[in-house]
Amino acid sequence: MSMFSAPKGVPEYFPPRSRAFVDVRSHLSRAAELAGYSYIELPVFEDTALYVRGVGESTDVVSKEMYSFEDRGGRSITLRPEGTAGVMRSVVENRLDKGQLPVKLWYSGPFFRAERPQHGRYRQLQQVGVEAIGSDDPALDAEVIAIGDEAFRSLGLTRYALHLTSLGCAVCRPAYRALLQAFLADLDLDEATRERAAINPLRVLDDKRESVQNQLIDAPLMVDHLCEACATHYDAVRAHLVSMGVSWVEAPRMVRGLDYYTRTTFEFTHELLGAQSGIGGGGRYDGLMASVGGDDLSGIGFGLGTDRTLLACEAEGLTPGADAHLDVFLVPIGAEAKTRLVALGARLRAAGIRTDLAYGDRGLKGAMKAADRSGAPLVVVVGDSEVEADSAQVKSMSTGDQATVPWTDLITFISAAIERDLT
RNA sequence: GUGACCGUAGUUCAGCGGUAGAGCGUCGCGUUGUGGUCGCGAAUGUCGCGGGUUCGAAUCCCGUCGGUCACCCCA
Description:
Low-confidence stretches: none
Number of strands: 16
């Protein structure tokens, strides 16, 4: 029994799985780097009002899932529940939007939502996100979507799907919203659903209950009521996706939980993850920057769930980061040998060779066992006779071959052996 | 936040009212300085935590904490 336990709903990654987590995260961010996005490091807490105004007071995320508290100066602080609002705040505050547009940024780190934990749903969740700000070019929408697709594909994932729709804009959405509300008013719905219809009628569309869905068959859909500009924009996005070879399914009833989304909206889901199947989602947000006090620039971005992407990889039997993480394992027998190998280890590491050593004066047999388990392809053994001969035994763990190598040639020999193994 | 199920060794799990078990892992041994296979042996548990019922509780009941599944929500 340990005295303390981690807070509820917080995932921890430790070896060996932490290696997979790190590898997943680097695949996700690499896709963004490959498309010219630059890293932005942001605070994990912000002024509560930023989320209330940016994300939307009526959203579940803001109204019942935020970790908010008063700091010692009496300010209301909130642990960030999502990434986009914070990026907007920083862009406006630091005038990153005053140069060439679009500004393309990526970020990574923990986010916090006080939800009831479940497999794949955590109170501290990890995301890798991108934002492209200051252009409403539909090619940029397509780029962002394609980056997400490539991020998942680069990990070897295949059992995922891209859901796509357009949520319209300030011109066409209000009229559609009224239309939908009128439609919903005539349906037989329970109180909670009626309430939702009043606050965010779009949300009713993706209700999972059959009894509700049956009544929604003839519900008006946003995509059928887009204004000319939105329709043209959406067509262009789809045309670009086709030319990039990205496939998707139309999801006219898809809804996002954050109020700022407009026009292009998308979600990646994985079919093996159960109820928490969303592994990434995003879209365009046209009014967000202005609502946070900046110029009225539009933007588009996504957040990819690092935790869930790892779960998706595991569900598909993929093993990210499984490559051996060591090149050489050193086995000393005796005090003199240890002194020599400790020094050799430092030199190997300085030469960029990943090296570990058998500590704790284990017997040769035990040390070899440790060497085997380390996964290192090469093992260097030094005992009394090697010390005397000023040499070392270098063993290949895969073939079992062992060579006597003069001490002065060791680093060169090892480098060459690793080089050979890589080719 | 609502409902249901689960919580036993490092790990996966069996035991379900009468002195705590197995597989895997860990450590040691199988003669002097060589791992993976095999054989033999050993260590490790306040049976999540707190109450209650009982002669006796890992086992039954209540609470609590944690996890899981669905709803909800979303990454």
